[in-house]
Amino acid sequence: MSFMFRLLREDDAPIPAIVFEDTINSGFVPVWEALGVYDALYNSDGRRARDVSRTIAYGVDRLAEDASLARLFHATLSPEEAMRFLGSVQRACMLHGDARIETR
After folding, report:
1. CA dist., res. 83 & res. 9, Å (int)
2. 3-state secondary structure at position 78
3. Exposure winner among 7, 40, 58, 74, fewest CB in 10 A?
């Protein structure tokens, strides 16, 4: 099972434009909880990207600096994949601050 994070730009068009989309294995939940980004990812549906960007950036910093988090990764999951996903989400939230978040 995977988790999808999407940013939608709502202009005057009848259908919102997808300006960012990324997915990751849902097995990262314990890591997201430890980083303090779980709510910013999983409970942000309908919010604006700017509302979660600071929390996500903090999680990126923590993941990069806290070696003790390695114990949370199941053998099939990698810290590099977590960093890739969080970094992508953080950059997109900064770039598209007014975009609406959609998660699945």
Report:
1. 25
2. coil
3. 74
